[in-house]
Write a structure and sequence with these properties.
single chain; alpha/beta; 4-stranded mixed sheet; 6 helices
Amino acid sequence: ILRSRYPKSKIIGLEAVRERTLRNLDQYDEVKYGLAVESVFDAESFDLIVAGELIEHIEPNEIDFFLREVFRILKPGGFFIFTTPNPNDIKARIQRRSVLGGSHVSQHFIRETKIRLRLESFRVIRVEGTGNTSRFIGRNFPKFLYGSYMIFASKG
């Protein structure tokens, strides 16, 4: 989607598991391999950082470092967009399922995540519901209806 909307942009991927990018290498101008909490990029390198379903794989004690690192490598006025499973998803709560388990080692409630972002100097622009539900009802209904959510934030 990014490549089709911004064909002149340079897209750099960061992936922990090399095999995941092999089928999509043509989508990137460059791919780096490492962990999101490792410093592999220079300060103020990016206009946009997209982290789809990533933050829940980061240990709770490393979340603040991760957010600081994203802030550090964003250019002033740059955007950070990420999605994560919604711990308040009504369907999961009815089924007594947790977003934790397997490789999901942290959970991110919307209110607390917005506070964390603000503490790291991000400006939270908006929150939208995502996941299968958004295909049927859109993205702006009460967030407990969505299995995941997306936060749009900016540096400055």
